[in-house]
Amino acid sequence: MSRDAPRRGALPDRWRRVRRGVRGVVLRALAGRIADGRAPLPDLRALRRVLLVCVNQRLGNTLVATAGLAALERALPHAELSFVGGAPAPVLLRGFRLARVDVVARGDVFRPWRLARLVRALRRERYDAAIHLSTATGSLGAFLVGASGAAHRIGLRRPDGNVFFSSAVESPAARHKVDELLGYLRALGVDARGERTLALAPSERAEGAARLRDLLGEAAGETVAVFVGARARKGKGWPLGAFASVVAGLRAHGLAPLVFLGPEELAREGEIRAALGDPAVVFEPDARRVGALLAACRAVLTPDAGPMHLAVAAGAPTVAVFARENWDRWGPRPPRGVVLHDPAGARAGAALDALLKAAAGTPFAESPLR
Fold it and tell me: What is the pTM of this model?
């Protein structure tokens, strides 16, 4: 890595902090002046057309929203649900009962004419309610809920007052993002429970299992998926040597590692293959196909990255390695997964032990691993 790489990586973070600071000033100035958010909550069961909004361009954040979407599908079986989300939404939400999915692209915040066109389209729909399916209170999604023209516009109250919602509820005390979202929905009267969900059709699962057989032959039934990529500038990576130790241990126990490469890892494919002993490798840009492959694996090893959320959502037993101490905010939980907190890359043995137990069918019972 060049000397300039940290400087280049730091610029987006600085710009993001500046934007958040300016946005916070504006929202504090507006808080309570547009609406106090004290309108009574509607009986959601009586609603017929409901708009759900979670505008986020990250795969993981969109998958977190699926826990709430699944809960609302169960609670509102007769309502027509629509969704506004970021670029990952159409692929990740396929299989849910949604009448339409509108997308806000990453650059649309700088193209106000596109947002204006979307707002006009939403207002024409005359939704009974618009629900911000996120715990963010000052985001673009919150703005779209407020501008939707729905009879009831529902979201979480900001600490310094409400801006966008006709009915604003207090933030739940939960730490984990999934629990926080479900706690918010329970405040709306929804029996909200569950986890991140990728609604794979039986045909997709069968296709994933067939592709695994094509990749690994007779060893397909013993596959353990390994993701080596994470956002290093965010401090989420795990040393390649630690992955190599785990992969060697999997082979020694008769398991077949399958290494997944993302766009950022393709440039290092030779280095990764050499370090991991030339394993079977797959590059698959389609998130649903990746999820279908993971659903057919015995276990998954992943750092704190989008594939971690995808593995949990696909129902694969997941061992997630966290270098930072925010595992209780984002990580998998038993029985679907377990967290290994290992900032130094010194606990490959613990990761291997967890994977071997998962591959043997032993449910996860503790997170993080001690």
Answer: 0.89
